[in-house]
Amino acid sequence: xxxxxxxxxxxxxxxxxxxxxxxxxxxxxxxxxxxxxxxxxxxxxxxxxxxxxxxxxxxxxxxxxxxxxxxxxxxxxxxxxxxxxxxxxxxxx
Length: 93
Prior knowledge:
- Helix content is about 85%, strand content about 0%.
- With about 90 residues, the protein is mostly helical.
- It is rod-shaped, with a radius of gyration of 37 Å.
- Keywords: Membrane, Transmembrane, Transmembrane helix.
- Pfam families: COX14.
- Its main location: membrane.
């Protein structure tokens, strides 16, 4: 007697078993793909957040280095004058 060939062994496996194996392997594949996509999206969001944070720091650094706007200087002078007037009692409500 000769050894049964591999094809004969595959033909003996019921269709339901083959379908079950296909479904299980498909679900495992989809699960692995989902985990990889979660990691990819997380990494992308972290990279974009870092870019925004660095841009915000750069903007703040430039604002601190830039000379103040004349209207801002005038507003501060008026606020200081008003506080001095209140402190010295020259202001009546």
